[in-house]
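Researcher: Please predict.
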Amino acid sequence: MITTFELKQRINKLDFELKEIFENVSIQEKSIGNQFFFKINCNGEFFNLNESNAVQRVEVRLIVHKSDLLQNSVSWSYSSDPTNENAHFVQKVSNFDKMAEDIQDVILNCRMDESYFQNLPFVLENLNEDSPEEYVDGDGEFLRKKIQSMGIDIDEVDQDEKIQLETNSFMTTRPEKKYSFYHHSDLKMGDKFILEQELNKIDGVNYVIFKEGLIEINFTPVQ
């Protein structure tokens, strides 16, 4: 019999190991009739796939049934093309302790449809090492512009991302980001109150923290 505790241990272990490889990991429990399974989506940046000599962002989508997850040899399947909902799934069997590595192998050895890898976008990198620009993703850039629209000049932005387990179900994970916006503005209490109100109106903003010369925003991307 599969116990909740054992399942949680396995999910947490797999989640941790995948996050060592991929930037973004999502694990969700699903069911169809009496079939219970996990949908796992991972994506990250990889270099020189198919000898491209470039960095590309790659996604892998897989399914593993709950009954298989507690076996030493885990049966799972991955989409041959994550961009195509109708793509066929490729069957795999892995030793549980090597499962994360086998998922990474799907990408490193280009084991999905050739057309998928041919159409991957390239990740543009800043080649000016003397004055590198801070990377901010789309959500961070949106928040930056919102803050600047209220008269606060942002000097620098740091971004940290982690995966939080949902409180209502340990089997669902969600990405959670923390943005740190550095500035030199003299924010009064009233300024902070108005800014916090405006930021909290934005979908995905969980809370805002003000420190000396710093605005921290905890943010969950809206799916």
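Model: Residues 4-19 form the longest helix (16 residues).
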